[in-house]
Amino acid sequence: MRTQVAIIGSGPAGLLVGAMLTQAGIDNIILERKSRDYVLGRIRAGVLEEATTALLHRLGAGARLTREGLKHDGFELAFQGEALRIDLAHLTGGRTVTVYGQTEVTRDLMDHRLAAGAATIYDAENVALHEFGSGRPSVTYMKDGLTQRLDCEFIAGCDGFHGVSRASVPQAALRSFERAYPFGWLGVLADVPPCAPELVYAAHERGFALCSMRSPTRSRYYIQCPLETDPAQWSDDAFWDELRRRIGEEAAARVVTGPSIEKSVAPLRSFVAEPLRFGRLFLAGDAAHIVPPTGAKGLNLAARDAYELARAFIEFFREKSSAGIDHYSKRALDRIWRVERFSWAMTTMLHRFPQFSPFEERMQEAEFRQLQVSEAARRLVAENYVGAPLPA
Ligand code: FAS
Ligand code: PHB
User: Among 177, 180, 222, 242, which residue's Cβ finds the most Cβ atoms within 10 Å?
Assistant: First the structure.
């Protein structure tokens, strides 16, 4: 088989690269190691920047998002029980975010791809990348017990942090930067109404908690937990009790409890690989970087990578210009590091770090107090949270 761009991974990054290439008439095939249902079963992000929603609409994949997405023009920070609203719309000249689960984004993009007749090969096992340093890259994989080969002109490595793409790059050619946090997030999804109209990020001496949602009848909650936490060891009641201890009496009184429909632990990590290009192989999304979810950036960062990489491929095939692909890595990394900083800063301010000295704990409080007294400080948080607009 042959295609112009082989895309590894059917998460948001791979699906968005594929959708943009298909819209531009550039042939592409997605190789996904799991089934469609398995990919859709993963509960991940929940907040979309305007740039991400604009991209979905430009691709013609935004109809359900318009119907079901919840537009939010602010969120709340709570620090040891003191609340502070970040008025996104006021601070950014009207910019907002949309609450719409990553699962739904993935479903919409998969359905959009199917309707466009673009190919995704699910359950593709043992994917291997070949000769991407030359002008003749190819990908091999196992499907139904048979080894298949896909010749291509470019490979988009969109296969997440544990994927094969970054792992295929010779160690000497790649430099990575990592900060592993000494805790994780225990997340619960439940069909109960949210406790507040907007997201609540709460710092508490017992640990961080986040009140989020998926719809007016479905809530998503997180509490900071030790890395080795086994979600099965947490009863629903124990989770609800701990959540209410951390979010302040007013919000706690509004929490509606119910049976969890999903319960999982996610580790928190900051990670960047440099560079993002290796000959004909390009990394995008979690294959290239990881942010702690405190800034609601992971999915949005992946979407922006996908936008820039797909435009670079389109420029190459349409205008025979390599300017886009030659500048992709530097341009993306400049943006990625700024988002890494924001996600790291939000995580550092709001979580309980067992190894922090009393001085560092005062610095956490000072970060919050600075936001209380300075509109400029709140504007910086708001601008980072809503993200940069998509170019016209
Ligand atoms: P993804 O990991 O989504 O997709 C990669 C795809 O590649 C997967 O479908 C995988 O099956 C496939 N793949 C992997 N190896 C392969 C191989 N060898 N061959 C073929 N296919 C392969 N972000 C937020 O903003 N908020 C959150 O609350 C949040 N929670 C998260 C919780 C967890 C447990 C995780 C892991 C991430 C979370 N994230 C969150 C970040 C997440 O949303 C990512 O940023 C987003 O999924 C990135 O999308 P992709 O880059 O497409 O990677
Ligand atoms: C979520 O709803 O899953 C979510 C929202 C905001 C975050 C992280 C996760 O910062």
Answer: 222
